[in-house]
Write a structure and sequence with these properties.
The chain has about 525 residues and is an alpha+beta fold. It is about 30% helix and about 25% strand. It comes from Carpinus fangiana.
Length: about 525
């Protein structure tokens, strides 16, 4: 069969991958191992703030918000967007108070809830409540800033509400015997081999090799072991249920040998060690990672092969969590990786593949129990109710103070802003007066039946005259009253009460009398209908 792409040839007919490369059986080619060599460790114990998890899922919040910077950035974006929107509205004309821009700017001024009594005031003037567009802009901006800072404060309290206190004390055999954990060791040899290459996985060595305390026992007495094939290589699994670790040192060794057309080569090791308390299984301590080369090598890819053993050294830390009802949990940590025989150059690897004495990969799992000391862990709260309220008050003062300073500076340097509330109120009053006057005109038109109302209303610029015709009140039955005064009286009233056309075209005549003669009443109704109602 043809050799895979990018492969090397040894013994004239056999194929293997270059140093640091694995065989991709799907693509039938050798590819470089791409893996993260970062070692991950977790204690398995997460503190909760005391609220029910069904109501406050802090883990999901922490998943999407990795730091306080997320809250601060979102607050800055919202604050700048609000200020830019209000700045844009400043360039829109107010008009007669009926357009959309005036309504928006008016409601922004109504949002002035923080600075309504703290605007610019002249000397020796009574303090009065004012609601301005600038005050409404800065009021909402201060609340946006306060809410953003408050959210960041809550995140800090949730994520850093307590401090771990570690106390190390000496231990003895009864203390160690109380540590009963379910432990699992998974070691994957990253290679193109399978479990058929595995040999000599059946012995456990305790104590120091070569010393008087060395003991050799069957591995089955310590844990259940197995091997299964994965896409990355053979995985050795060791499971120990309710383990009582009394011995300080444990050694477990195995090896992979050459098979026809399947040489014993590996490019790294992947490990995952977990420890769980059988009585409280929701807490799991683990350490996992990938080893591609040793500390004595550079980052150049290597292939492990030869008789010198590869040693993976792990430490086990006994821990007692006093804040979790004296939970006893063993924390595994990677201590060191001592690489065995390996090759960086293609020619050296070819020579090793052709040498039958190098056709083996020796691996040793070394577990060291730190039995001299036990770590006692407790947590102490760093945030109390008084400090929380103090922080909250400080954030509120900062949010209000920043925009209060900006408000004072704007109104001090720009005189137009000092009276902008009066301008907007006058425009709104004129619009309301116009609407009320229109309602009065319509009422008069409906009640006394004036047919010229529509023409005068549609042509407000035309000059009106009250002496051009006479309005007669109409009864419900359609009959009209007789004139109570002669025509002479009407002409006298017309002359005495007639106004200049300029005034009549641009003003409102307000008359309040208790008793109105019929002819004068007709005259006033005519004036109400005739005025085009431009208000002042």
């Amino acid at each position: 069969m043809a050799c895979p792409a990018n492969s090397i040839v040894y013994n004239n007919t056999l194929c293997a991958c270059p140093p640091g490369q694995l065989l991709n059986r799907t693509a039938n080619k050798c590819s470089l191992l791409v893996a993260n060599s970062t070692i991950s460790t977790d204690s398995g114990v997460n503190y909760s703030i005391g609220f029910p998890m069904t109501l406050f899922d802090f883990d999901s919040i922490k998943k999407f918000t990795q730091s306080q910077a997320i809250f601060l950035e979102a607050t800055l974006v919202m604050l700048l967007s609000w200020l830019f929107f209000c700045f844009f509205l400043r360039f829109m004309k107010l008009g007669d108070g009926r357009n959309l821009w005036f309504k928006i700017r008016w409601w922004i001024s109504r949002l002035d809830v923080c600075f309504s009594t703290r605007h610019w005031l002249g000397d020796q003037k009574v303090v009065k409540k004012r609601k301005t567009e600038l005050g409404g802009t800065f009021s909402i901006a201060s609340w946006i800033l306060f809410i953003g800072l408050f959210a960041a404060l809550l995140y800090q309290i949730i994520s850093k509400r307590s401090v771990e206190v570690h106390n190390v004390r000496a231990t003895n055999a009864p203390d160690l015997a109380a540590f009963v954990n379910d432990m699992e060791f998974n070691i994957t040899t990253l290679s193109s081999m399978s479990c058929s290459n595995l040999r000599s996985l059946d012995t456990l060595v305790t104590g120091k090799p070569g010393f008087i305390d060395q003991r050799v026992t069957p591995l089955s007495e310590f844990a259940n072991y197995s091997c299964h094939n994965t896409s990355q290589g053979p995985t050795i699994t060791l499971r120990c249920n309710r383990c009582r670790l009394i011995q300080d040192d444990l050694y477990i060794s195995w090896q992979f040998i050459d098979l026809p057309n399947n040489p014993a080569t590996a490019v790294g090791f992947q490990f995952n060690l977990t420890s769980r308390n059988p009585d409280n299984k929701k807490h799991v301590s683990f350490v996992c990672g990938t080893l591609k080369n040793g500390s004595s090598f550079d980052d150049k890819p290597v292939t492990f092969r030869g008789r010198v053993s590869n040693i993976l050294k792990f430490n086990l830390f006994p821990r007692i969590y006093l804040n979790l009802h004296d939970l006893r949990l063993i924390q595994p940590l990677l201590h060191e990786f001592l690489p065995g025989s390996s090759f960086q150059e293609t020619s050296q690897l070819q020579a090793s593949l052709e040498n039958s004495n190098d056709g083996v990969i020796n691996t040793t799992l070394y577990v060291n129990l730190l039995s001299a000391y036990i770590v006692e862990i407790n947590n102490q709260n760093t945030v109390g109710p008084v400090s929380f309220l103090a922080d909250l008050g400080g954030l509120y003062c900062i949010s209000i103070g920043i925009f209060f300073y900006l408000l004072v500076q704007f109104e001090y340097r720009i005189k137009k802003l000092r009276n902008e509330d009066n301008v907007m109120r006058m425009i709104r009053k004129r619009r309301k007066a116009q609407d009320h006057w229109d309602k009065l005109r319509k009422y008069v038109n409906y009640t006394w039946g004036c047919n010229t109302l529509d023409d005068d209303y549609n042509k407000p610029k035309e000059k009106s005259s009250c002496s051009c015709f006479m309005v007669q009140p109409v009864h419900r039955n359609g009959s009209s009253h007789k004139r109570s005064q002669p025509n002479k009286m009407n002409s006298i009233l017309s002359k005495k009460l007639s106004l200049p056309s300029e005034i009549m075209g641009n003003s409102i005549l307000l008359v309040y009398v208790r008793e109105v003669p019929p002819s004068l009443k007709h005259f006033l109704l005519q004036m109400i209908i005739s005025f085009p109602c431009r208000l002042h």
